[in-house]
């Protein structure tokens, strides 16, 4: 399509849209006010809701109370920042008491944490759930646990496993 014709069509479409919205207040009231027919409301299904029997959706983004920690950064699981379109995010907090940084996430694609049968009294519990510790080669300590069907993890470079578990119990 020739360039001058594109510009003319764009201008015409814009003028038509503006004219439409400017004319709406002058339309007859009968065109704009229509009550719902009573017959259509009576045909709606009655009885218990299908959604009433479902469990509530799990909480994916745990947080600390404001007096315990402040949010330093929040990223999506896939590395996005800003407005996060994904359900779960990686949130980094600065603890008010010590100034340590901890990151909290609900990672995807990980197996749920299950108690080991030989471990009758586990050393670490987070929110009453069995927790496991992992330390990688860069010195980051991570605690992972599963509650309500969601696996969470909290990690820190400066805190050891027992302190990190205490901090994790403050999440809600």
Low-confidence stretches: none
C-alpha end-to-end distance: 59 Å
How many runs of DSSP E, i.e. beta strands? Answer: 7
Biggest β-sheet description: 7 strands, antiparallel
- Helix/strand-derived category reads alpha+beta
Strand content: 25-35%
Tally of discrete structural domains: 2
Average pLDDT works out at 83
Oligomer: single chain
Query: Which sequence of SSEs, written as H and E, runs from N to C?
Result: HHHEEEEEEEH
Spell out the blueprint of helices and strands:
Blueprint: H1 3-23, H2 29-32, H3 38-42, E1 69-76, E2 89-95, E3 101-105, E4 125-126, E5 129-135, E6 141-147, E7 150-156, H4 161-168
Antiparallel strand pairs: 1-2, 2-3, 3-7, 4-5, 5-6, 6-7
Structural commentary:
The protein has 172 residues and is an alpha+beta fold. It folds into two domains: 32 residues; 100 residues. The chain has four helices and seven strands. A seven-stranded antiparallel sheet has the order 1-2-3-7-6-5-4, with helices on one face. The longest helix has 21 residues. The N and C termini lie far apart (59 Å). 13% of the residues are buried.
């Amino acid at each position: 399509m020739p360039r001058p014709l594109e510009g003319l069509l764009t201008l015409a479409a814009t003028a038509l849209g503006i004219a439409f919205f400017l004319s709406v207040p002058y339309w007859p009231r009968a065109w704009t006010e229509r009550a719902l027919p009573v017959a259509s409301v009576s045909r709606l299904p009655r009885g218990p809701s299908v959604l009433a029997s479902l469990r509530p959706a799990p909480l994916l983004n745990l947080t600390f109370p404001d007096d315990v920690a402040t949010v330093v950064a929040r990223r999506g699981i896939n590395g996005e920042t800003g407005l996060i379109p994904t359900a779960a995010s990686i949130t980094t907090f600065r603890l008010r008491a010590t100034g340590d940084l901890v990151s909290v996430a609900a990672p995807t694609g990980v197996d749920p944490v299950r108690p080991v049968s030989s471990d009758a009294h586990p050393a670490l519990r987070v929110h009453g759930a069995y927790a496991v510790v992992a330390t990688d080669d860069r010195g980051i300590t991570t605690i992972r646990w599963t509650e309500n069907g969601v696996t969470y993890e909290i990690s820190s470079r400066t805190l050891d496993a027992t302190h990190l578990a205490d901090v994790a119990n403050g999440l809600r």
